[in-house]
Write a structure and sequence with these properties.
single chain; alpha/beta; eight-stranded mixed β-barrel; 18% strand; globular; binds ligand C2E; binds magnesium ion; transmembrane; membrane
């Protein structure tokens, strides 16, 4: 073990294996701590969804929000999903965490205008849960959010496992009126066959492609190729990661109808989401 640590310490360029070991211990401990605290955070609500606006690229109007998990940890401060979703998945906590987040998000969404959709991320672990669809529909029932206002997002990278089970879940969602978006499109390797037979309702182009469009002809042609493919498949597209105003019209003209990104807003708490929706009402009234 020491050999490996020494080797990896060298690879890390630290040249100090004691330092590396201490570092690794601290990481393992932090991980264990996060897993323990997450149970508490679900119970006391310090982990909760924030909402990133999704905008109609033609009109600029907010047509929905994506719920993104945020955790205000008492010691570590604001934690990003990357720092705890994976731990929740490995520690058997993603199903209760996701139920907790959806319960809040669905309730919050009932306060938005009825044409505003709620987009919600589903983990690969949930996709393998035979009760997933039932659990989600039950929460919608409890909170009073119509299933037709929910769009679940499934990352292209998780679509490699049991595709038959996934398709059954998708069909059950569709029967209930829930839509399905293929998230992070371009980062996985769905076959064209899957794209057709999974009956997705939307593709979300991964932010890495969108963010590299500025100043790169190659990235721009790649995004245009994705837009062409979606058009051929009859799938509407959302672009993630729009930071630059200048990308809006090329995306729109290429056939991308919806977008989200820091150019519009990052994910915000419910009060702020309501305020953003209010600005839209004011803009409409004065138009
Ligand atoms: P995602 O579903 O692809 O969500 C979009 C991510 O892009 C969010 O990161 C968002 O903050 C970020 N983003 C949006 N616009 C921009 C932009 O203009 N610039 C940049 N640099 N980033 C932008 P976030 O919130 O850190 O979430 C990361 C990932 O964690 C999500 O990627 C999703 O896969 C996962 N995640 C978040 N919340 C949940 C959840 O409740 N359940 C599950 N299963 N996964 C979640
Ligand atoms: Mg982030
Ligand atoms: Mg997403
Ligand atoms: Mg994404």
């Amino acid at each position: 073990r020491a050999d490996i640590a020494l080797y990896r310490a060298k690879m890390n360029g630290r040249g100090n294996f004691c330092f590396f070991e201490a570092d690794m211990d601290a990481q393992v401990q932090k991980r264990a701590r996060i897993e323990r605290d997450l149970r508490k955070a679900i119970a006391d609500g310090t982990v909760r969804p924030h909402y990133q606006p999704i905008v109609d690229l033609k009109s600029g109007v907010i047509i929905g929000f994506e719920a993104l998990a945020r955790w205000d940890h008492p010691e570590f401060g604001q934690l990003e999903p990357e720092q705890f979703i994976g731990i929740a998945e490995d520690g058997g906590l993603i199903i209760p965490l996701s139920a907790h987040l959806l319960r809040i998000a669905a309730r919050d969404a009932t306060q938005w205008p009825v044409d505003t959709k709620l987009c919600f991320n589903i983990s690969r672990v949930q996709l393998a849960d035979p009760l997933m669809v039932l659990r989600i529909l039950q929460i919608l029932g409890e909170t009073g959010l119509s299933p037709t206002r929910l769009e679940v997002e499934i990352s292209e990278q998780v679509l490699v496992g049991d595709i038959v089970a996934a398709k059954e879940a998708f069909a059950a969602f569709h029967t209930a009126g829930v839509r399905i978006a293929l998230d992070d499109f371009g980062t996985g390797n769905s076959s064209l066959q899957h794209l057709r037979t999974c009956h997705f309702d939307r593709l979300k182009i991964d932010r890495s492609f969108v963010m590299s469009m500025a100043g790169s002809e190659e990235a721009t042609s790649l995004v245009n190729a994705i837009l062409g493919l979606s058009k051929a498949l009859g799938l509407p597209v959302t672009a993630e990661g729009i930071e630059d105003e200048a990308l809006i019209s090329p995306l729109y003209e290429g056939g991308c109808s919806e977008g989200q990104g820091f150019r519009f807003s990052e994910a915000v708490p419910q009060e702020e989401a309501i305020r953003l929706l209010g600005q839209r009402a004011t803009a409409r009234a004065s138009a």
